[in-house]
Every structure is written in C-alpha cells, then in structure tokens.
Amino acid sequence: MTLVSKTFDLFGKTYVLEAGELAKQATGAALVKQGDSTVLTTVVVSKERKNYDFFPLTVDFNEKMYAAGRIPGGYLKREGRPSEKATLTARMIDRPIRPSFPDGFRNEVQVVATSLVADQKNPVDVICVMGASLAMTIGGVPFEGPLACVRIGRDKETGEFIVNPTYEERDASDLDLELAGTRDFISMVEAGAEEVSEEDMLAAMQFGQEAIGAFCDAQLEFVAEWERVNGAIVKREYPLDEPNEEVHDRIFAHYDEMAAALRDADKLARQDKVAELKEAIKAEFTEEEQAAWEREIPVNLKKLEKTAMRRMVVETGERVDGRAANEIRPIMVKGDYLPLVHGSGLFQRGQTQVLSVLSLGMLNEGQRLDTIEPVEGKRYMHHYNFPPYCTGETGRMGSPKRREIGHGNLAERALIPVLPDENEFPYAIRVVSEVMESNGSSSMASTCGSCLALMDGGVPIKRPVSGIAMGLIQEEGKTVVLSDIQGLEDFLGDMDFKVTGTERGITALQMDNKATGLTFDILRTALEQAKEGRAFILDKMLEVVPGPREDTRATAPKIQSITIPTENIRDVIGKGGETIRGIQDETGASIDIHEDGTVYVGGVGDSVAAAIERIELIVKVPEVGEEYTGRVVSIQPFGAFVNLLPGKDGLLHISRVAQGRVEKVEDVLNVGDEVKVTVIEIDDRGKISLDRLDKPEAPAGSGSGEGRGGERRERGDRPGRGARDTGARGFDRPARRERGDRPRRPGDNGGTGRAPRRHHEAE
C-alpha cells in the first residue's frame, strides 16, 4: 500500500486528502485537512454478521487536546468523557452515513474520527464526513457514496454565501448551516440563523448541495489516483438480509387488522393494540419456524406496521390520530408554573409535554469549555432531559445520552439569536427542559417551553420563538408533507424536519432525511407549511404569556455593573482576595471583576447596593475640602492616621488634633476613636493631610513636659509664639515634620521644631 496525497482548492479554501500511510490495519482509513486542521477517520467492519434486526453502526469523534496544543483539565490530565461538541460532531458524522448502507446490512461498523491538528482557524467537524466516506470507499465497504458535509455561512454585509467558513468568517455570518449527503441527495441538515427567511434558507441549502457535489467529485478524483497507484479497489462482499416471500405474505395477510389497530389517537393504547396483534401473528408460526426465521419475522412485522401507516396517509389523507396533514395537535400553555424558581413554563402539544425551568446567575457562572475550538465558554446553556417515565418505561437514569445532548443543542441554537446582549442583560442563563411525556416533537416542545420560561423570568428577549417538527411520507408515487409529527410518524416516516423561528424568520433548523426523492420543491413546501404551523403555535403561546416580564422575579439575583479604574482592581480584590471576600461575606453579594475594570455585582435584596457602595468607597479618591468621619487606626509621635475610606488613610498632624498645644497624641485620641476631619492637602504622591473639625481644647497639663521642652513652653507666653505653637508652622514646613519621625533624644527641643542650642552658645 503506497501513500497517495491530493491537494485541491475549493471555494477559496485549500484541502488535502491522504491515504495509505496511517492505520493500515483498519478496513479503511483517510486523512483530511482543511488549512492545517487535520482529522484521521478510520472505518472497521466486523467479519461476523450480527443477529440483529437493526444496523449496528457506532460513530465516535476522538477529540484530542494536543491537536490545539493544550493539556486537558481535571486531575488525570487526559481525555475522558467526550465534550458536548465532540458528541455533536459524532452525531453529525453518523446521520448522513447511516442511511447510506444497504437494507439488511448487519455487520457491525465502527467509524472513529480523531482530531490530530486544530489550527484555531478552520473547524475540524464537517471534514470528518468526507474522511469517513473516503475511508469506506478505499476499504471496499458497500454504501451509497461518495458523501460529503459542508458548512454554509453568509456574510452579513455582502450577503454572499461562504463554504466551510473559518471561525472568523463564522463570527461575521448570520447563518450557520451544516448539510450532508451525496451529489444528488441531502440526508442531513443542521442550522442556526439570525431570523433568516425561508427563501434565503432554501437558497443556502441549494448552494450547499452544489458544494457537496464539488467535494464528492474531489473524492472521485482521489479514488482514481489511488487505483492508479495501488490497483483497483476490491468491493467486499457482506451477506444481507434477503427477503423471504413466505414470511412476508403470511404476515401481510393481516394488513387490514394492522391498519385498524393503528387508528387510535392515544399513543399507549395504540402501542398496546399493535403489540398484541404482532404477538398474535407471531404465534401463528411454529417454534421451528420462529427459530429458523428469527430475524425475518420481526423485520416483516415492522414492515407491516410501516406500510399500513404510510398507505393510510397517502390514500386517505388521514393520519393515525385522525388529523389532516397540516393539522396541529391540541396545545396547552401555562406560564409562571413553579414558585421561587427564576422562571418556568409548561408547554403541551398532544401527548408531548415539557416543563422548562430558568435559572439566572452571574456571568462567571457560564459554562467553561475545554475543547479544541477557540471558544472559552458560553453564557447561555440549554439542557434537555428525557427520563424513561416520559414514555411509560423503566430505564437507567444517569448522564445525558447523545440524543439528549443533540436536542438540547437544537433548542439552544433556536433561542440564542433572540437573547439580549450581556451588556443589556448581564446574566448567565440556564434553561432545563424536563420532558414529562413524549409522543414526538419533544425538542420543539422544549423550544416553546423554554421561550415561555425566559419570558416568565423577565429575560428581555427580542422576539418570542416557536418550533414545529415536519414529516414526509413518500409512498406509491405520492408525497405528503406532515405538520407536527408524532413519534410513529417520525419513526416510520421519511423525514424529520424541525424548524424554529420568530415572526421574522428562522432561528434553527434540523433535518434527517431517508427519502431519496426529496426535491427542493418539497423542501419549499415543508418550510412554508412549517411557517404557518409556527405562527399558529406562537399565537397560542402569546395568549397566555404575551411577553417578557418588565423585571426579573424577586427570587432571581439582581445584577448591576459598574466600571472602576483598572489601577484600582488590585485594591478591590485585596491581598490574596481578602478585600473582595470580605465584601461578599458581609453583604451576601457575588462580585465578578473583569480585566477592563467592569465589575458585575449580583445578589438579592439590598446586598447589591451594599456591595456597590463598598466598592465605590474603595476606588473613591478623596478631594481637598471633603469632610469625613473616620476612625483612628494608628498613632505616631507626630500625629494620628485616620481611615477615611477602605484602604485610604490620612494624617492628622499632632498640631491639629486639638486647640492648643498637645505633648502626646494619646492625650487627645486613641486608636479606634471616631473623628471628624477635612482634607486640606493631597501631595503629588497621593498622601493626604487632614485637619480636625470641632477641635477640643487641649487637656490641662498636656503641654507641660519635663526638661527643656517644658521650660520653652512656659516661655512661649510671649506675644506671637502662641500662634506659631498651635501647629500651623508644623504643617507649613513638612521638612520639620519628617524629622519628627525620629525617637526623641536627650537634648531635643521638645517637639517645637527648633534645633538644640550648642554648648558654647549656651555659655
């Protein structure tokens, strides 16, 4: 096996396809690059055929942190459970590949995509599908290919479509559309959009289909070069489930019974009837026949149910629950459903019911992301839970499955375009959707319920969002588009097409398609029918919750922001975080300081105002003439230091502590005393000088010190000396004050500021 490499340019980007050097023991392996971003995709098909009545396909995306030059977080410092992004990427690969395999394929298939390089410019997700397609082709695996996946963006300013945009180009785009399939067939669509119209979305999908074709052609050129270098690719032979006419005919003899069993609007009752009928049909086979046809019997029973449901729709125009094709199930809406929480909403459509609950928090409570993408975190989080009781079943509770992560991501993308900017609404936002019962379209019910919860919580969304799931039945040459599909129509139908949006346009879209006859005319019909359905649902929602509350609930934290000088950030935080922790402990508020000096303060009651007041006091700069009531924090021979503001002290000189002469500051003030002062000077180093207001008279005897100082004070009764000794000169001549820092020595002048006389002068 010889290495083959092909470099090609498409739509302004450079790509590389390689095979023949890495993972040569896999059934097939291919390396794909966009820019420097590199992904290795391998495919292994088991030699043994599994005795399943389904296709056993497993797809994993191996997100390696070394690809971005990072060390994983956590104690173990190695990759553990896949991130949500890794899970979503695995789903993106799985969805177009799964329907490409032939019916009856039962050998186990495992696809593993491993990120080797993430250049922080080009995403690594969409190119994985091309890698899987190329690996399966080289490995001789039977599938309908080649396959490719592209991402389509649209420049906000020019309106031009962009194929596989860089992260920078995505930031400047109002559309993020991923679609996959073959040259002639779209099998998967996923999109987020800033209220894009149906026509624009359809145009983007048509452009994307053409781009897929170009990448498929590039694969064919690579395969031709591969076969030239390494010889023709040998198509592997795998046994398929062969139709058994006898089993088919005996089971389909019960067609009318199955059609009758399906006509029940109640999901559980219908399931019971269908299950009883299947058991009765199965019992008609002997034990020997059941053993011999253990795969054929359940497969044909499933076909019987599928055929009966689909023919009912295309022949009568009526669905199993009696609805017309464009009819929506009964809707029930309740806002303000739960007390104390920050917001809640209950949305029910038919037998699908979702309770969504809102939680608000500080911006620093948003989710930090440990992935290979240049994204550090996100402010809005939508979590979707699908417990077993919602379908009347038992099951294991635990971490979310891929389906739950995917549905939560769809609802998240649906609502992000209408959320307020964090400068307008400085909150981290989490919405949890609990599916209480399910009969199809639970992700769209989650979107509707979450919009209700946001409005109930006072989040000032731009416009309300609703969602609907569309379906498709193509049978006997007829095509019917279904609105608001239920579980059976999703499972046995040809398409699951979810659309969310506002009155202005689409915010999110997801489609899984099994029908090769899907045309853009059918997609246009589905989008228009979905628009009508969304409007109907939105009206029902707004009848109960007309819009967001004017303010957040009393139970939600109040968050305000202030801006402080960056040079004061250290003062607010304090040594080792002591100051900020003290403010939080004393007020009960939460404080988040950003590098640009923006401070977010959150809490309930009066805690926010109290914390902001403390912070403003810390950063406040005293001005000459301002008056304060401060506390004495330190006493020195030359004066007292008075705390004016947190972290800011001023010097009250000994000459200004009282009316008259004071020998010791302690004669007038003690540490802890409150004193009213005014700022009289701030020097260029920021040192603050104070004067005491309402000076008391100096205590009797305070100025009668021993020795020479005392004698000088007695002689100080001469005219003019009193004014000088009150301390005015002490402030006016700071050089003398600085000398006062020395301990007094024998021969000093008692603090008058005069130099001691020399002995010869005294004589």
Task: Estimate the strand proportion.
Answer: 25-35%
CATH architectural name of the largest domain: 2-Layer Sandwich
Determine and state the CATH class of the largest domain: Alpha Beta
Counting helices, strands and paired strands, the structural category is alpha+beta
Task: Let me know the largest β-sheet.
Answer: 8 strands, antiparallel
Taking all residues together, what is the mean pLDDT?
89
First-last Cα distance: 115 Å
Number of strands: 29
Strand order of the largest sheet: 8-7-9-10-21-20-18-19
Helix proportion range: 25-40%
Gross geometry: elongated
Q: How many structural domains?
A: 5
Unreliable segments of 5+ consecutive residues: 705-763
CATH topology name of the largest domain, in short, is: Ribosomal Protein S5, domain 2
The CATH superfamily of the largest domain is known as GHMP Kinase, N-terminal domain
Structural account:
There is one protein chain. By secondary structure, the chain is α+β, with helices and mostly antiparallel strands. It folds into 5 domains: 4-230, GHMP Kinase, N-terminal domain (Ribosomal Protein S5, domain 2); 245-316; 331-544, Ribosomal Protein S5, domain 2 (2-Layer Sandwich), CATH 3.30.230; 558-619, Ribosomal Protein S8, Chain: A, domain 1 (2-Layer Sandwich); 627-713 and 723-762, Nucleic acid-binding proteins (OB fold (Dihydrolipoamide Acetyltransferase, E2P)). The protein contains 20 helices and 29 strands. The strands form 6 sheets. An 8-stranded antiparallel sheet has the order 8-7-9-10-21-20-18-19, with helices on both faces. A 6-stranded mixed sheet has the order 1-2-3-4-6-5. Strands 11-12-13-17-16 form a 5-stranded mixed sheet. Helix 4 (198-230) crosses helix 13 (520-544) and helix 6 (255-262) packs antiparallel against helix 7. It is elongated and about 125 Å long. The protein starts with a strand and ends with a helix. Residues 705-763 have low confidence and may be disordered.
